[in-house]
User: What shape does this take?
Amino acid sequence: MEKNIAIIGSGFSSLSAACYLAKAGHQVSIYEKNESIGGRAAQLIKDGFTFDMGPSWYWMPDIFEKFFSDFGKKTSDYYQLDKLSPAYKIFFADDVITIGDCMDKICTEFERIESGSSVHLRKFIALAQENYEIAINKIVLRPGLSPFELVTKETVLKVDQFFKTISSEVRKKFKNPKLIATLEFPVLFLGAKPSDTPSFYSFMNFADFGLGTWHPQGGMYRIIEAMGSLAEELGVKIHTHANVEKILVTKNICNGIICNGSTILADIVVSGADYHHSESLLDAEYRQYSEAYWNKKTFAPSSLLFYIAFDGKLKNVDHHNLFFDTDFERHAEEIYDNPQWPTSPLFYANFPSITDESMAPEGCETGFFLVPIAPGLEDTEALREQYFDLIMDRFEEKTGQKVLDKIRFKETFCVNDFVERYNSYKGNAYGMANTLSQTAFLRPKLKSGKVKNLYFTGQLTVPGPGVPPSLISGKLVSELLTKNN
Assistant: This one.
C-alpha cells in the first residue's frame, strides 16, 4: 500500500532509502537542512578548486555496483571510475611504503620490508576474502533485530574471530612495525582501535588489497549527484534549506514533521540524520536511548580538516597519502582511551588533482588534509592553526619540498562545524565504532521501539560507519519498513 514518507537528511543512507522506497511505490520526500544534498559528503568549489569535504576513499566498488543494479543502472551511467595505481603511500619516519594496485606489487613491497612476509600476506588476504564474502553477502544484509542473525553455517565456523582482535592476529604473522601499521590501517574506517576490533573485520584488508582503491572522475560528490538524479528519476521530491525542527507523534504514532516552522504530515518518517540528534527531535517520552546511553558508547573519531588550494604542483606524493611517522598507538590512545588533542598525530593527505585534472586549475593542486581526533574536544581557531603548522612542517620534511608559499587559500573544518552543519553527536565524523559490543543487533535500531512508523538509517545504526555500509543501511531500512507496513 502506497505511503507518504518523509526522510530527514540527504546523506548516502537517506538517498539510498529514498530510492528503494520510491521504487517500492511510495511517495517520498527528502528534507535537507543545508543548501545542497549529500550530508557529510559535501563539496566545496572555490576559485576553480574542487574539494570533497567528507569521504574521499572509494572502496568496495561492488557495493556501489549492486546499489545501482537494483534500479537497472550501472555506475558508468553516472560517473567514470578509475582504479588508482598506486593505491596510496604510507610515510614512516625512515621509509615510504607504496601500496600497489594488485597483490603481486603489494607482496613485492612487503618482501622489501620483511623477508618471507609475502607468504603470510597471501594467506592473510585469502582469509580476509572469505570473511568479506560472508560479511557482505550474509551479515551486513541483516537488519540487526536479533543475535541469531549472526548465526549462519559460515559464521559458526569463524566464531573465534569475533573474540580475537585484528591487532593480535596481525602480530602473530608480521613482526615489522611498518607492516603491522599497514595492515591495521584499514580497520580505522570502522572507527575503533585495531586492538578493540574483532579479527573477523580483516575483510577490510581484502577491500583494500584485493579490491583496490578507486576514484570517480570529478570526486566523490559525483556519487551523491548520481544518487540524487536516480532518486528524482524515481519520483522523489528533494527539498534543501529544509530544517526539520520536530518529529510529530500522537499517541505513540509518528504522523509527520515540523520543517522550517511548518507542519508536514506523513504516514512514515525515516531519519538519516545523526541518530542522537534525531531522537532529540522527539518529546522525551518517545526517545529510546538516554544521554547516559550515548555517553557510554565508543564513537568513531572526529576530524580536523584542511582544504588547501596550491598554486603549483606538488612533488613526491600520490592521490592518497598516510603519514604514520609518529607513534600510532599513542595517537589511538589519545582518541579513545584518554581523549585529548594529540601530542604528535598521524594524518592523511589527499591530492585528487594528481589523477583527476578536473579537480584543480591547470598547474595547480587540490589538497585535503585530515587529522583524526577524539570527538567532543574543545575546538578553537588557535588550536586549528597550531595543528596546521605542526602537520605542514612534517609534510614539508617528509616530502622534501616547501609548500607554504604555494598556498592560495585554505579552509578549515572541525568539531564545531560537524555539530553545526551536521548535528553530529560530539562532533563525531564517522558515527559509532564497530567494536564487538557495538556490532549488528547491539547497535541502535533501525525501527523505533517506542513510536510506530518511525525509522532510522545511517552510520549510527546497522551495519555501521563508512560509505558502502551507509548504502546498505538505506536498503535495510526500506526492506524493514516495507515488511512492517
About this structure: Residues 5 and 268 are 5 Å apart (CA to CA). The domain at 4-41+60-71+218-297+432-484 is CATH 3.50.50.60 (FAD/NAD(P)-binding domain). Residues 117-137 form the longest helix (21 residues).
